[in-house]
Description:
It comes from Streptomyces minutiscleroticus. The chain is mainly alpha-helical. The chain folds into five domains: 2-206, no CATH class; 246-388, Leucine-rich Repeat Variant; 410-546, no CATH class; 550-620, no CATH class; 677-707 and 724-742 and 752-932, no CATH class. It has a two-stranded antiparallel sheet. Helix 14 runs antiparallel to helix 15 and helix 45 packs across helix 50 (880-894). 47% of the residues are buried.
Amino acid sequence: MSAESLVEAVRAGRTGEAVRLLADVPDAGRRACLPALKELRKEVRADPWGARARKVCPALHAVGAACHTGAAAAATWIAASDMRWNQAGPGTLLHVLGGRDPRWLGDLVHRLAARPASAAVPYELMAGLVRLAGCPVPTTDAYVQGWVEHVSGVWQTGGTVADRLRRDPHVAELVAALCASTEALGQVVWMFGDGPDPWPPALARLTREGVLDRKVMVDACVARLLRGGAPSEQRAFLRLLECLDLTPEERRERCADWTALAADALSTVAAHAQSVLGALALDGELTPRQLAETSTAVLFRSEKKLVRAQLVLLGKVLRRDASAAAELLPAAAEAFGHEDTEVQERALKLVGRHLDALPARAREEVTALTDRLSPGLRAGAAELLGTEVPAAGQDAYEEILPPAPEPVRLAPPPRTAAEVAEEVSALLASGGDVATFERALDGLARHAHRDREALAEALEPVVARRWWAHDDMPRENVEQYFRDRSNGVEVVVASLLGSVRTGALIAATHRGHSGDRCVHSALTRPYDARMRELAYRVRTDPPPFLLATPTWGSGLLEPEELAGRLEEYRALGARAGEADFAQALLRVRRDDPGAAARAAERAAALGTPEGERLARWLTATAPLLPTSGRRTLGNRISVEFGELLDLQQELPEEFRQLGRPLYPFSGSTYCWHWDQDEQRHWAAVLPGHRELLAGRVLRDVSGAVVDASAGAASILPLLAEAEGPAGEATHLCLAYGLGSRHSGNRLSAVDALLVLAARGQLDAERLGTDLGELMDLDTVKPSRLADALRTAASTGACATVWAILRAALPAPLAGLAAPADAAVPASTAASADTATSADAVDTAEAATPAAGTTAARSAAAAGSATAAVSTASAAPPRGLGDLLAVAAECAERTGARGHLPHLDRAADRRGSSRLVAQARRLRTALTLPPAA
């Protein structure tokens, strides 16, 4: 009766009664209860959040744990995920398990502790089991994480973290495990912050008291810093190490560790190691060779603060001990190869100050490293070292660009229904390019025409996991899904399998939707109309093949190939689909008069309406681009397009919007056309008209700058690979992409820039002028542009980047206040004034300022240097020095020469800021004598 009563109490959710009854049930009776408890568990699992589950589960959890006589089974029951949110409390579990053998309890707690932290086994339960069992404490990630959270979370009991740790008998083992654990520390590292009672000072106090072994703690901290890891973890151990306050002896015995950390660790950790080594060096605890080895490693780091600090340290040591020059100056000269020319200049000055103490052999080592200096510093280095001044431009520069994309012809269509199913499966899983998509689409049409049932049978397993393919799915939900948008090849497959009614497809084609109000709808409506038309026809009148399948991966269709397809249609008596034929007309190439004339003659001879339309289309003289105009709207620049009448006369309604006037910043701001898989097909809707595509994505790409939209510039590489002239809209899109806030957008823009340059379609002056205007409007920040162009230059495209910056830099430079108080020699004052006036004229000739540019640029364009100076801002835009550094690097590498308007405004300013230093560097590079 006791076992039956126990199960009844559990079913009723009476936890207290069930716990009392357990005392009267022997092990055999408990095991007999398990089938009923497991059956009850299945019942409540069906509704885990229901009222019954919340009532029953605590009793079920506790009694089930007690009824399992094996430790492994009990651990599995206790940690079960289906009872995690309604389980018994740790006190209850300890009560029902407390009578077990200590060895059994020790086995149980170690099994529970071995589970991942995500299993959420309560720490109080595990700690209580350890006390009952008297076993060694587990040091798993889950146990250690629970311990840290427990110690930090029981502040209500009074005392500090140090007090609570001091009372824990296992503190030494658990702290050692915490220091060795990656997962546990990563989960609780936030508790090591600067709150009212942080851990690092507490652990340091226990170490000073002897509760924790000092050597173990110091070694653990240094080892974790050497191991690396997440920045938050590194900062936590650095804080602990600082709280431990190492003695001079402890610092000396770890010189090799400090050197390794200074070379490779996180910058904050490296700075600490550098400060320790610096103190040791100034105290005479480091030999010159040790300091030289450390310096060689640190001077290769990209953090300029660390590099400058190391050069300062070398200077201090050399002032104290000039005999160390033979070891230290060659190490300092390693900085000649640093990417920052300011660092190079500092290193050169350091060498110059101590050159007299340099032995001949060491002087040769330093001299050999001067070829790493920038061209602007090599002449000074040669004069300093008494060597021959190198001739400028001795090494011919060679531009390195990626291979230009080659046109790819589409492969033949799939031969069998199984092959069609494979290609459709790949498209549904991960998308595909235009060529893959069009081959699969043509394969669906061909095999639906040959044997629709066989094709449907092959496609059924492909879409088995699509929600709309389930038999119990309401048809209205499925049709709503395909009514709002076609979803590409999905609608064709759904129609083949009977998931969508043909009437719903007709209604969706003619209804229009909210997406029609945005600038992308001109590209999406033809795409959707073509998909729905094919979806309808595969059920009613499957075409033998598609007319619009392109010849090339770009979407272009050869005219004679289209004429041949129309001949086959006439021979088969097939009916051309309206949307399919309209798309074929938009894709057919018309830039080869000979091929167009031959195809027109073949088409006219057919005597069919489609043949006559193709003949008219191929013989018509259509403008390559509509008229366009440029407008400034707030802090954005837009390009607006006029009509293309030939896109409105021979095409269905769904296609005519392509030829209507385009205002990129009009229409709905919100739409669902963010899907990159769909955007891949936009260029293939109207191949050869890249500017119209650029105009329709211009607002999106500008959002990457103004609105910080992540991924908004991902279409730029596709735009660069598209066919057609690259005009104002394309270059403006690229300008916005290069100035994007997110680095991923900037990388997409750099890819597009290199592709356009490789294809010979980049107008660097136009792009630079656009960037200058956008910097004038404070839309593009120079620091972000510098990052993008530095990336492009690092690939080997220095000449391209310099050509862009030559046109972009005059605008922000013109906005600087004239250096009236600069230290300009009197003999050059008149020529400087003349140059300033010339700068204004040069700027006016380089580009016509758009509406909304600053008064300074308008004055410069008019040739009034005085007006430009009076309205210029004395505060330079942030990052302009970085942009000048990229320009100087590219000018030095390419051997560029000549005059850059308004550069003297920056170069003649007082001080040694990055802006001034890089402006002077660029001016030096541009005025070097030409190579012989």
